[in-house]
Specification:
Blueprint (H helix, E strand, L loop, with lengths): L1 E2 L10 E3 L12 H6 L4 E4 L13 E4 L3 H15 L4 E5 L4 H12 L5 E3 L9 H6 L8 E5 L7 H9 L3 E4 L7 H4 L2 H14 L5 E5 L3 H4 L8 E6 L6 E9 L3 E7 L4 E6 L4 H16 L4 H9 L9 E5 L2 E6 L5 H14 L4 E6 L8 H15 L3 E5 L4 H9 L7 E4 L2 H11 L5 E5 L7 H16 L1
Parallel strand pairs: 1-2, 2-3, 3-4, 5-7, 5-8, 6-7, 8-9, 9-10, 10-11, 15-19, 16-17, 16-19, 17-18
Antiparallel strand pairs: 11-12, 12-13, 14-15
Length: 440
């Protein structure tokens, strides 16, 4: 095997020195050597004193490009059907639901967590071996050209674009540029392959004319190949709906909450249909799905309902989360929001708009964390929310201290923010406090 992390590299593995934005793996080679690695890949020639006769050094012009080239080679060695998933929201959940369905029949390889970038995708593909029958790979990006590059490495047979939204504006500048960047998946895929698109997303529908292979659409409002109708939320169970492929209809109870989760399920259904699954098999996979940590994860403890959606945030996913909470909550609604990052020049404007949206929903208490999130608070007040119900904190711990004194039985609390804000710490501290209070 191989590893890029000196903390977890195992004896007899190859240590791969990768230069990242915040680190250089070459700086940790001594640590890796002490753990018994047999060799290392590097774009410089450093070898520790006294180790030159004991270790194999593979020197390359670029350790990142070498990793990607090896991953592309391993993918060619194992030409199993591969599904690539990208989009502004729902990538990881869609990937996980696809895997939940496909594992009913196949041995499945998928990204662990969100290893979806220029390093994570190659590391995933290097795990592809002879026992795998299908692979599901999430493709992320924050600049133009990344999806094209990753598609070239993964060579997918089925490409899924979940939606186009206001994510990564800092690197791409506009929704039009985001659409083009996501559309690189279509551009880079081979002509006869299958593309799965959200029919309810007008920006995505502008890309359908560029599909050269088979197109499968999914949706709720617009006519599509795969659709959901008769949607009902059942607290404690999930979202009940009728799943249709145009010819057949089946009731499904998805163990997730919110209409936006249905889009993820429908995209997964379209993928499974293209691989020969019938609706009954698909229903089994959908109903067996287990929620992923930090993504609309509802935790009930001591009479308090905590919605942990802390994994990441952008304007559209924030709206989905708040709307879902509003649909579910039958007690006091408390929304705790951290900064939404990577929004570029429109950051303040988009945070303010988010605040106005929250005011229109009618939550009872709004707590913000971070300098950008202050604009959410200001937007909520300007949207008509009472000032005494809106609180802004510069630090997570101060927000947690306030919430511990404030929360009571029957409350619903939504915690959300961009990955860099570590809002999962707020969620975990609140949950631990509620458990302790209940036990006392």
């Amino acid at each position: 095997g191989l590893s890029i992390d000196s903390r977890s590299v195992a004896a007899d593995e190859l240590f791969w020195g990768i230069k990242g934005d915040r680190f250089d793996g070459n700086d940790f080679r001594d640590d890796a050597f002490s753990k018994g690695v047999t060799g290392f890949v590097s774009d410089n020639g450093y070898v520790p004193d006294g180790k030159r006769d004991e270790l194999t050094l593979i020197k390359v012009p670029s350790s990142l490009k070498a990793l990607q080239a090896l991953a592309a080679y391993n993918r060619k060695k194992h030409p199993v059907p591969l599904v690539a998933v990208t989009g502004s929201n729902g990538k990881t959940t869609t990937k996980e639901i696809i895997a939940s369905i496909l594992k009913q029949r196949f041995e499945v390889l998928k990204n662990e967590g969100n290893l979806n970038n220029q390093i994570g995708v190659p590391l995933t593909l290097l795990k592809l071996h002879g026992e795998h029958e299908v692979a599901v790979v999430e493709l992320g990006m924050n600049r133009a050209g990344e999806i094209r590059d990753l598609t070239g490495i993964a060579r997918p047979d089925i490409g899924v674009i979940t939606c186009i939204g206001e994510a990564h504006l800092e690197g791409l500048g506009s929704l039009e540029n985001i659409k083009r960047a996501k559309g690189e998946l279509i551009e880079a895929m081979e002509d006869e392959k299958t593309i799965v698109l959200n029919a309810d997303d007008p920006a995505l529908m502008e890309l359908k004319d560029f599909v050269r292979g088979k197109l499968i659409t999914f949706g709720i409002n617009e006519s599509a190949d795969v659709m959901a109708s008769d949607i009902e939320v059942e607290w404690g169970k999930g979202t009940l709906f009728i799943l249709s492929d145009g010819e057949n209809r089946l009731p499904v109870l998805l163990p997730l909450y919110g209409e936006h989760q249905l889009y993820n399920a429908l995209a997964a259904t379209a993928v499974a249909i293209s691989l020969g699954f019938n609706l009954k098999e698909i229903r089994e996979g959908l109903e067996a799905y287990e929620a992923y940590y930090g993504r609309m994860e509802i935790l009930t403890e001591g009479g308090v309902h905590l919605i942990n959606d802390s994994y990441n945030a952008n304007p559209s996913s924030l709206r989905f989360a708040v709307k879902t909470m509003d649909d579910l909550a039958y007690g006091r609604k408390i929304v705790v929001l951290g900064d939404m990052l990577e929004l570029g020049e429109r950051a303040e404007e988009l945070h303010t708009e988010a605040g106005r949206f929250i005011a229109s929903i009618g939550v009872d208490v709004l707590v913000t964390v971070g300098p950008l999130a202050e604009s959410i608070a200001k937007g909520a007040v300007s949207g008509g929310m009472e000032e005494q119900k809106v609180l802004s904190f510069g630090e997570r711990q101060k927000a947690v201290a306030y919430l511990k004194a404030e929360i009571d039985k029957g409350d619903w609390i939504l915690v959300k923010g961009s990955r860099g804000m570590a809002m999962e710490e707020v969620a975990s501290e609140l949950l631990a406090y509620i458990k302790k209070r209940e036990n006392n």
